[in-house]
Amino acid sequence: MTGNLSSTKLDNATLSLFQNVNTSIIISVIYMIVTAINLVANGLSMWLLIFRTTPKTPSIIFMINLTLTDMALGTALPFQIAYQLKGYHWDLGSNMCSFLTLVFYTNMYCSILTMMAISIDRYLGIIRPMQFKQTRERKSIAVIGCLFMWGLVLSVLYPLMTTDLTFEIQDLRIITCFDVLKKDMLPSVQAWVIFIFGMVFLLFIFPFCVTTFCYISVIRKLARDSKTAQKKRAIRLAIFVLLVFTICFAPNNILLLVHSVLRLFYNKSAYMAYKLSLCFSCVNSCLDPFIYYFASKEFRQKLRQIMNLQSQSSADSMKMEHKENLYSS
């Protein structure tokens, strides 16, 4: 959603994007599917994590934080769907535009930082177990870590909270929301470079490197361990998390950097590709419950208990129906 920088007139590529009905429909359908899966899967995950999972380990606290951001995205996406289906016309005002844009990007970068925190927690628990167990204030550290993540993300995204992100395109008679940014949103090109650097390098590349290091170290450690079940789960978790980074987050942030450089210094655009990659960045909110399944033994046990209860209740109901049929006959 980081849009084209504009002062007066838009380029033809940007105008063609706003007039491309097929692209708008594709993006809307993807958002609809993501919204449905997001709210169901993360609603169940939140219920399990808060009410059914004990004790509240640091990993569980991080997962609750991740689920919260995912559900916030799920509630914000319907507004984006309506915006797309109206032909990129925003009619809810500038404040609502800024708020929902902030929710959108906060979800992405809080998810990245939380995955990094989970990887660090697993790294300390497996690579340095003695030091890890001696830390008595682990829960407090996890809570402080979550608050720090939110503070860091909101600090980097602060310009989104203080700027009118709507832009009127008189030729098309539409008002866009964060698809076209005014050049005077930030005072200079240097300020734009710092803003983009913070989003791409501080909130994506650095967490990605830390997460990769932690999981590779865990895999190497467990490869020498006789606990094959633990090793397989750790390897699956590492592969899954790295796939989420690669598929959901990497294209979006790389294209954000490419588009920003092209727009700031060469007056060119890669916005069409960036807009499509943004859809796939939302898919992470549907995949996070699978991370919980691999990362938390408690979460797996509670989910399996629920599935067993449901299967048992289904079997009991079938037995009752069979008895009723025998009685009636």
UniProtKB/TrEMBL annotation:
The keyword Metal-binding does not apply. SUPFAM superfamilies: Family A G protein-coupled receptor-like (SSF81321). It is a multi-pass membrane protein. The chain crosses the membrane at residues 25-50, 62-82, 102-120, 141-161, 191-216, 237-262, 274-295. One of its GO terms (molecular function) is G protein-coupled receptor activity. It is found in: Cell membrane. Its main location: membrane. GO terms for biological process: phospholipase C-activating G protein-coupled receptor signaling pathway; positive regulation of Rho protein signal transduction. InterPro entries: GPCR_Rhodpsn (IPR000276), GPCR_Rhodpsn_7TM (IPR017452). It comes from the Eukaryota. Pfam families: 7tm_1. Keywords: Cell membrane, G-protein coupled receptor, Glycoprotein, Membrane, Receptor, Transducer, Transmembrane, Transmembrane helix. GO terms for cellular component: plasma membrane. Residues 41-292 form the G-protein coupled receptors family 1 profile domain. Belongs to the G-protein coupled receptor 1 family. This is P2Y receptor family member 8.
